[in-house]
UniProtKB/TrEMBL annotation:
Region (Disordered): 59-80
Modified residues (N6-(pyridoxal phosphate)lysine): 280
PANTHER family reported in the protein's UniProt record: GLUTAMATE DECARBOXYLASE (PTHR43321)
Annotated protein name in UniProt: Glutamate decarboxylase
Origin species: Metarhizium acridum (strain CQMa 102)
Length: 509
């Protein structure tokens, strides 16, 4: 029990006090949103850890091949203390609860913290870790499908034709989940001006065979948050009992800190499950995701296995059995090291940097496709303006050419073909990651300006030749062996996926 406060002493209201700036959390400090001193000696001194990290990162500003700060598929380096803990945990098998009971306890704590962050009901919510959002989504889809099937069987109705409703902006793992578990995919297509699900269309697509609607909190293309509340309200209005799963792979660790009043999580009536990637804005090295259910009602019992492993009884709902314990420990470190204040400082800084970059790109004449000011993920999606958007001449280069030019300057800024029915719209996307400081942002803006100018000057043939050259020599493309090896010939040119059917290219963020 906590000691009683001595009479006469002032009670310190820890939770109500705005935390002091924490300079050991370099990218949560105000320095991350300022340019590095260039001309004058700064008036004030800088904490050593900030000076060290900012200079170190500036020296590796253009890591074309290593760990680009403009992509979030590999998060920035974790602190030494986190790395030490994770290294020490490397030999531990997460599943061995008997030998490493504290690992199970730490897993439990993380799941609780994440469930609470998402406003899950305290007494009923359950959650588990996974290797990432893809595995988490597979588990959530299995739960929705099983629950739907059981309900249909209880009603004496056929249960052999399930479908799932989602926007065509979904990450490829949703296509996989639907295909692997034999569920029909029903898409709400994006348009040239709407890059998210249309709630009305989504609800209209539902029928008695719909196992659920997917809403994405931060699509991979534009980072926009889909309107979870609008979908739920329409379902309630229609008296439909179709559940909603929120794919918060990236947004789950952003929205609660940047826009805490946005209702997208378990505060929304029809949301039954949510996934989040620990290795994106959860700021852990790759290999950890989480899925949380509102209550056991949404997780059919016959999917849970009680396993007696080396003497310890445990319940398990995962696609694999053994896995390393390090990532869960790394997640716990970040949660308690940063706390809500640390995550809030970092995510708000990233949002400010994304807004700054947005303004700069708009000024350069690009069309901005992402939402700023915390209304979406801290990323900037943009494209060249078309002829109908103020451009006088047709360009003889596209976003893919700009991506290649930037690659030759050391930046990895991918170009994509958008979701189907957007007229093969091309776009580029810069994910603002924790270590993408204002200073790095300035350098990138300069390089985008330079490369755009070069593209205007260079001939079409030269651009094509440079694309080929960069593809061959700067990136791995052309050198990477397909993981499917010799079987590649059999599987190439597939026509069953959104990419195969429509040319949509995939993204991670
Ligand atoms: C919206 C969304 N869902 C799912 C995934 C898959 O996540 P993971 O890489 O953690 O499996 C991603 C990855 O980028 C994503 O952006």
């Amino acid at each position: 029990m906590a000691p009683a406060v001595k009479r006469g002493m002032k009670r310190r209201r820890l939770n109500a006090v705005e935390p002091q700036e924490d300079f050991t959390n370099v990218y949560g400090s105000h320095y991350a949103t300022q340019d590095m001193p260039c001309d004058d000696i700064p008036d004030d001194s800088m904490p050593p850890e900030v000076a060290y990290r900012m200079i170190k990162d500036e020296l590796t500003t253009k890591p074309a091949t290593a760990n680009p700060p403009t992509n979030n598929d590999s998060p920035p380096p974790q602190e030494k203390e986190a790395e030490d803990l994770m290294l020490e945990a490397m030999p531990k098998n997460f599943i061995d609860f008997e030998e490493y009971p504290q690992t199970a306890e730490i897993h439990h704590r993380c799941a609780n913290m994440i469930a609470n962050l998402f406003h899950a009901p305290k007494d009923t919510a359950i959650g588990t870790s996974s290797v990432g959002s893809s595995e988490a989504i597979m588990l959530a889809v299995l739960a929705m499908k099983r629950r739907w099937k059981q309900q249909r069987q209880q009603q004496g109705k056929p249960a052999d034709n399930p479908n799932i409703v989602m926007s065509s902006a979904v990450q490829v793992c949703w296509e996989k989940a639907a295909r692997y578990f034999e569920i029909e995919e029903k898409y709400v297509n994006c348009t040239r001006t709407r890059f998210v699900i249309d709630p009305k269309e989504a609800v209209e697509l539902c029928d008695e065979n719909t196992i659920g609607i997917v809403a994405i909190l931060g699509t991979t293309y534009t980072g926009a948050y889909e309107d979870v509340k609008a979908i739920s309200d329409l379902l309630v209005e229609e008296k439909s009992d179709v559940p909603i799963h929120v794919d918060a792979a990236s947004g789950g660790f952003v929205a609660p800190f940047v826009v805490p009043d946005l209702e997208w999580d378990f505060r929304v009536e029809r949301v039954v499950s949510i996934n989040v990637s620990g290795h994106k804005y959860g700021l852990v090295y790759p290999g950890v995701g989480w899925v949380v259910w509102r209550s056991p009602e949404y997780l059919p019992k016959d999917l849970i296995f009680n396993i007696n492993y080396l003497g310890a009884e445990q319940s398990s709902f995962t696609l694999n059995f053994s896995k390393g314990a390090s990532q869960v420990i790394g997640q716990y470190y970040q949660l308690i090291r940063l706390g809500k204040a640390g995550y809030r400082h970092i995510m708000c800084n990233l949002t400010k940097t994304a807004d700054y970059l947005t303004d700069a790109l708009r000024e350069l004449g690009f069309v901005i496709m992402s939402e700023g000011q915390g209304k979406g993920l801290p990323l900037v999606a943009f494209r060249f303006a078309g002829k109908d958007e103020g451009e006088t001449e047709e360009k003889n280069f596209d976003e893919f050419a700009l991506a290649h030019y930037l690659r030759s300057r050391g930046w990895v800024i991918p170009a994509y073909t958008m979701a189907p029915e957007t007229g093969q719209m091309k776009m580029m996307r810069i994910v603002v990651r924790e270590d993408f400081s204002r200073s790095r942002c300035e350098l990138l803006i300069k390089d985008i300006k330079l490369c755009s100018r070069l593209l205007e000057q260079d001939s079409e043939q030269f651009i094509e030749r440079l694309k080929e050259h960069v593809g061959r020599h700067t990136s791995g493309s052309g050198k990477i062996r397909d993981p499917m090896g010799v079987a590649k010939a059999v599987f190439k040119n597939e026509r069953h996926s959104l990419q195969g059917k429509t040319g949509k290219s995939h993204a991670v963020c």
